[in-house]
């Protein structure tokens, strides 16, 4: 079912344009709307994880639409909302077998306005499973090729870390 929903979101992404916000030039905000090919690599698994993860790298897709309605607690302040199709259990991350909807939220600071809460002025923060007890935070740098960075997952089993890359769907497919 999640694949059908992901397909519906991705089909609806074509041609989505960010609306201008008061006081914000549209060119100052990056736009994540659309489909992204994703690659996540595992650097350190959970210390209390039990079995060794089935894979050290996974590939999949994340799809975003612009957030025009972000008034709820999970969506407040998010620039993009979306879904993902990544088999996180292969990295040992879906330990609770949570059947919740595979949600992703993204925030992008305004370019040229430094903030103490970001890696640098072109940083992007993406949270997978924002309402879960095992959410995964991807923090990376946005450039003309895509987004590259590090991810961190925390749970009762400790902290797992790794790297990730996102490329616009259809360009160079991630190697897995």
Descriptors for this entry?
176 residues, mainly beta, Lipocalin, 8-stranded antiparallel beta barrel, 1 helix, 38% strand, disordered N terminus
Description:
With 176 residues, the chain is mainly beta. Strands 1-2-3-4-5-6-7-8 form an eight-stranded antiparallel β-barrel. The protein has one helix and eight strands. The protein has one domain (2-13, 36-168): Lipocalin. The chain has one helix spanning 2-13, and strands at 34-44, 57-66, 80-85, 103-107, 123-128, 136-143, 146-155, 158-168. A hairpin with a 2-residue loop joins strand 7 (146-155) and strand 8.
CATH class: Mainly Beta
**Portion in strands:** 35-45%
Radius of gyration: 16 Å
Could you give the order of strands across the largest sheet?
Answer: 1-2-3-4-5-6-7-8
Give the count of structural domains.
1
- Our count of helices gives 1
CATH architecture: Beta Barrel
The helix content, as a percent range, equals: under 10%
Overall geometry comes to globular
Integer average pLDDT = 76
Query: What do we call the CATH homologous superfamily?
Result: Quinohemoprotein amine dehydrogenase alpha subunit, domain 2
Number of strands: 8
Q: What is the CATH topology classification name? A: Lipocalin
Helix-strand string? HEEEEEEEE
Decide which structural class fits the backbone.
mainly beta
Q: The biggest beta sheet, please? A: 8 strands, antiparallel, barrel
